[in-house]
């Protein structure tokens, strides 16, 4: 037994015999499957505002969620008290989703296969607070030094260490220790009556050395300050359909919203997604191949095992424009007769797992980014975005620019005010006419919300050209 | 094997004792000021889909948060561990952290004279939200979905009917002797039907009712029928050409604009100059018809509380009076930064410094009905949903995805989707030309129907 598995055994006095007992209790009313999700999460956050560290917070949350599945029904209960009688009570509560005598025996536990995706010598959570504090102070100073028009800087650093143990009545026995760290900052620029905002951030399943050696506070500071200064001169974005070029990296949020959510298996099992029944059909131009890959080392969206204890995978969603597959958890895999793709995730022990994305990206193509820009007569070049959203049933999705420019006669010209791009998932990618050779993944800031649950994710694209997309500006 | 620490069961222990004990221990350990929150809650939720129970969830949880000061330095810790060891670690950890944070001249608790709690029963807690047996709760969800699907054969699918209930109990205590306690309850019923049109395209929408007591919850049938109406009217939606026409915002959608305005009058955004309303106090920022109020004292309100996240009594604040910006919404920190007085709007989770939250935040209604407002428009866009987060509070730039219905000659005609609505909040505030009479609270923010001029619709 590894160290981290023994955390729950040692610290909370849980024994293998207890686990069997909890699962038996969970299945006592006839459930077909039950699992226990133990979680112990420690977190540190530090923020700088007005060049002062006004706040530093540390905390611990721990608990156990018990799930019981009977057909399409799920019963769930959780406790933040890991005393045996409390877990048993949760098991009894969740059990009641089924009605009848116990049918399913608990299989003997066997350790799940896993990856080794976090190359962290010592997790950021263990690092000295003073070292984290130095990072945010450096970022503050670097952003202010960038330009005298930078009048405000806010910077936050958050790290966490999530230790999980997943025990399933099908014999699942999986554990993981998931480090996660993120740096995020905002710079405000002011010039005369004009104000503007720039934002940056990044991180991943990394240690604090990542911010000391690879992506430094100065790197993020310069990026936020640069954006804020550029936005000071932004002019009104155009309104209407036109050619759109997306820069590499974070603009991959296009994939997340346009197709990713619509390909989550639960929506397709229930027939509520605009992509329902479209496997094998063309949903993108033949230049597009899109994957969801939870196995990339150190990425924010990567995990060794998902929150049901299944190893994560590299799943092809779209191959040369043809829809190939859905993202699944255990429940949808069983009900749909498909393979579990290891995408069962949850926000915490308080939440029921469901199919979620990990790192969703498009493979590189052959076009040079310069050629792509040159090919546009009049359009928008969007290089950075804020958030996005999708209505999975009618397929309409939006994502909003935070840094974008006009392209006029093949040249990038004026910066544009923030605006929203809107499209229709099943057809948006059919408009992709050029795919760059410059695939980039995002810096590691993404958090995806679904059904009230947030999980960290990654996205990526090479530079892309869409022949037609609606740009939501104000200029006529 | 038993755990080697004594488990203190919060549900049987007085949260008051825990919160005051934590404050006392922090002070004894060297803090110059301290504030603790202890809370516990229960939740129940169920979703019924196509007549069958899909999920059933039930749980209780608790948490403890501590904020300490060492002079002008602050830090905080949180935990769900109510054991003696857990509390010791909470206090020790916070004091360690406070040694490394910055001296902030404005840091601190509110002044002793500012502390207090609104006396009497604010009607925030009713134990009847759990009075139905589990079967009864499931039945609420089932009835809401069935009522929706029974409306029309084109309603062929569903994301379900749901029923949720929750209760919360919290105690806030600080080293100035404040101890405040409050309980709250909620229950809600909702339906999300899906309709399929002749072209095979699907649409979904939803409706809900939320209340602090089961007695005030609308019937599941009423909720289901309204959800069906809202879904069916979207069938056959199409894009329109880019245009500039009057826009009418459905109350829920108009409420999201109020949420943007709240973010802009939030004292934290104001002192950081990250709001387009920073420096505008006393200025005319909106049309004469615009009067905006934040009231944390309304009995039974969803934004009501006896005291805020720092122990200051909730109050009623006139934010915009006939178009003039009268007040920002503040906690004691933002108030000190801006040289103003707290408005009792501190919000506090378990962690970190207090933020700023709204009470019941609403726009004073006008006298005309939604039908009258729409009836006067020759060519316009009635927005029933916004999509995405395209609002920049620093500049006020606003650009969001939208769907709704096209207005022609005073009546709602065909459904519209895949367009954006864009403008700037500064202009939008000045261009509100009609405010409806239909103010209704379905949450802590409420706004009547609004008509706004001069926004750009981007489509084909």
Please characterize this protein's 3D structure.
The complex is a heterodimer of chains A (476) and B (460). Chain A is α+β, with helices and mostly antiparallel strands and 476 residues long. Helix content of chain A is 21%, strand content 39%. Chain A is built from eleven helices and 24 strands. In chain A, strand 2 and strand 3 (73-79) form a beta hairpin. Chain A is globular. Chain B has 460 residues and is of the alpha+beta class. At the A-B interface, strand 2, strand 3, helix 4, strand 5 and strand 6 of A face strand 2, strand 3, helix 2, strand 6 and strand 17 of B. Strand 3 (73-79) of chain A pairs parallel with strand 2 (52-70) of chain B, so a sheet runs across the interface.
> How many strands, which pairing sense, and closed or not: the largest β-sheet of chain B?
8 strands, mixed
Radius of gyration of chain B: 24 Å
* Helix/strand/pairing category of chain B: alpha+beta
> Structural class of the secondary structure composition of chain A?
alpha+beta
- Write down the overall geometry of chain B: globular
User: Which range best describes the helical content of chain A: under 10%, 10-25%, 25-40%, 40-55%, 55-70% or over 70%?
Assistant: 10-25%
Helical content of chain B (DSSP H or I, runs of 4+): 10-25%
Number of strands of chain B: 22
**Alpha plus pi helix count of chain A:** 11
Shape of chain A: globular
**Roughly how many Å apart are the termini of chain B?**
68 Å
Distance between the termini of chain A: 66 Å
Task: Output mean pLDDT of chain B.
Answer: 95
Q: What is the oligomer described by this structure?
A: heterodimer
Task: Name the average pLDDT of chain A.
Answer: 94
Low-confidence stretches of chain A: none
- Ranges of chain B where pLDDT stays below 50 over 5 or more residues in a row are 1-12
Reconstruct the topology from this structure:
The complex is a heterodimer of chains A (476) and B (460).
Chain A: H1 3-11, H2 16-26, E1 33-49, E2 52-70, E3 73-79, H3 84-95, E4 110-111, H4 129-146, E5 150-168, E6 172-191, E7 194-204, H5 209-214, H6 217-231, E8 239-246, H7 253-260, H8 265-269, E9 290-293, E10 314-319, E11 322-323, H9 330-336, E12 344-345, E13 354-355, E14 359-362, H10 369-374, E15 378-390, E16 396-408, E17 411-416, E18 420-424, H11 425-428, E19 432-435, E20 440-441, E21 447-450, E22 453-456, E23 458-461, E24 464-472
Parallel strand pairs in A: 4-6, 8-15, 14-23
Antiparallel strand pairs in A: 1-2, 1-5, 2-3, 5-6, 6-7, 8-24, 9-10, 9-14, 10-11, 12-13, 15-16, 16-17, 16-18, 18-24, 19-24, 20-23, 21-22
Helix pairs in contact in A: 2-3, 4-6
Chain B: H1 15-28, E1 33-49, E2 52-70, E3 73-79, H2 84-98, H3 134-149, E4 155-174, E5 179-196, E6 202-204, E7 207-211, H4 220-232, E8 243-244, E9 247-249, H5 251-265, H6 267-271, E10 292-295, E11 316-321, E12 324-325, H7 332-338, E13 346-347, E14 355-356, E15 360-363, H8 370-375, E16 379-387, E17 397-408, E18 411-424, H9 425-430, E19 432-435, E20 445-446, E21 450-452, E22 456-458
Parallel strand pairs in B: 9-16, 15-20
Antiparallel strand pairs in B: 1-2, 1-4, 2-3, 4-5, 5-6, 5-7, 8-22, 9-21, 10-11, 10-15, 11-12, 13-14, 16-17, 17-18, 18-22, 19-21
Helix pairs in contact in B: 3-4
